[in-house]
């Protein structure tokens, strides 16, 4: 389906499914936040969720957008974000992925995602997935030089009863240049940092990196921050202060030489 195909879901969004911020930013980097929003279109009836589920980490990456916006300002980098909950469609998954429209999260059943028809799934792909990835492509195409692609996420301190000690996860697919550079930069940060934790490529979490990083030959990295560290403005500010100089090092080392000021 074309990204411009009209449907009742698209009409009900009330806002664009994606947006780009600071598109004239001078940094040779592009920030991406696929799970920035918990918004669910009215046409979907709240997906049948309780208020607890609709506001939980299942619906969005808590703190990830706030952190992305802080980094956008600190680095002067553009940012592309989704404006629809990942429970409607997870923009970090390809259309064929079963968990692109999950019917069950770690803790919650998502009734509105159960037993969808092919047409219902196609409408979400058309109205959420394609607008987001088209905007990402357009933003990349408009950059004056190839940027470092940086995707921003958060994760819960406890998952399936297991406490997660890691505070900063640095993930990569087949290109580990940016991940290894960031890992080295993080050594003196005081953060409990790990490579490919709490997720890795085997969990199917690198779709955006593959689609827009690997396919273009861009240095790319996925960042996961434990959400209890960024669930307040103070926490976001502290984490941005730690991450911004690390990411500046990554950009300095990996952006094409001709792109450097």
TrEMBL record:
Gene3D superfamilies for this protein: Zn-dependent exopeptidases
Domain of life of the organism encoding this protein: Bacteria
SUPFAM superfamilies the record matches: Zn-dependent exopeptidases
InterPro entries: N-FG_amidohydro, UCP029730
GO molecular function, one term: hydrolase activity
Keywords: Hydrolase
Pfam families reported in the protein's UniProt record: FGase
Name used for this protein in its record: N-formylglutamate amidohydrolase
Species this chain originates from: Phaeobacter gallaeciensis
């Amino acid at each position: 389906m074309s990204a411009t195909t009209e449907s009742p879901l698209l009409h009900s969004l009330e806002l664009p499914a994606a947006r780009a911020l600071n598109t004239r930013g001078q940094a040779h980097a592009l920030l991406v936040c696929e799970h920035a929003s918990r918004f669910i279109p009215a046409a979907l009836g709240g997906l049948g969720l309780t208020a607890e589920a609709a506001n939980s980490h299942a619906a969005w990456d808590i703190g990830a957008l706030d952190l992305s916006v802080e980094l956008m300002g600190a680095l002067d980098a553009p940012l592309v974000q989704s404006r629809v909950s990942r429970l409607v469609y997870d923009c970090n998954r390809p259309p064929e992925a079963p968990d692109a429209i999950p019917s069950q999260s770690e803790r919650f059943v998502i009734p509105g995602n159960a037993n969808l028809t092919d047409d219902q799934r196609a409408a979400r792909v058309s109205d959420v997935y394609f607008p987001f990835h088209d905007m990402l492509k357009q933003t990349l195409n408009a950059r004056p030089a190839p940027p470092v692609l940086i995707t921003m996420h958060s994760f819960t301190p406890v998952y399936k009863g297991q406490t997660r000690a890691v505070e900063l996860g640095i993930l990569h697919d087949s290109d580990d240049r940016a991940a290894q550079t960031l890992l080295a930069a993080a050594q003196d940060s005081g953060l409990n940092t790990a490579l490919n934790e709490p997720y890795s490529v085997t969990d199917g979490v690198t779709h955006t990196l593959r689609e827009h990083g690997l396919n273009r030959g861009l240095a790319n990295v996925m960042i996961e921050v434990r959400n209890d560290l960024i669930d307040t403005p103070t926490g976001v500010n502290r984490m941005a202060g730690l991450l911004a100089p690390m990411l500046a090092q990554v950009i300095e080392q990996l952006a094409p030489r001709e792109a450097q000021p």
